[in-house]
Write a structure and sequence with these properties.
single chain; 128 residues; alpha+beta; Beta-Lactamase; five-stranded antiparallel beta sheet; globular
């Protein structure tokens, strides 16, 4: 039985969750249909842009510190567990998203990148 390439792109496009892949410099290389729905940017608008496109300015320093540490070590701080965070949509509005992050290492070249899988998250209720 011969191995066949799986239709990864088709799987990524058909999932209901946003799937984003960025290279080691934080440039978006994969942006699926659900990413368009969640953030409002089309693939054409997002591909080739920095992740800053969807990261609120006040969170960027912490984001890049964590991103660079993950790329360097090959692992994320949360080990793939979902975390709730704020992001920006195309209108410049803050949205809440539940996001899982991971690092991908190409076994041949050793090149690293980061992926995120996200879905909308409701804002937290005010403390009583």
């Amino acid at each position: 039985m011969s191995e066949q390439a799986l239709p990864y792109q088709a799987m990524v496009e058909q999932t209901s969750e946003a799937v984003i892949y960025a290279d080691a410099q934080g440039i978006i290389r994969v942006w699926n249909h659900a990413s368009e729905e969640l953030f409002g940017f089309s693939q054409a608008e997002a591909i080739g842009q920095s992740l800053d496109l969807i990261i609120p300015e006040r969170l960027r320093e912490a984001h890049w510190r964590g991103f660079n540490a993950a790329i360097a070590s090959g692992a994320t701080k949360h080990g793939g567990k979902p975390t709730r965070t704020k992001a920006l949509n195309k209108a410049g509005e803050s949205i809440y998203a539940e996001v899982s992050f991971g690092v991908v290492v190409d076994p041949v070249s050793g090149q690293r990148g980061s992926f995120a899988v996200a879905r909308p998250a409701a804002p937290r209720a005010p403390a009583a």
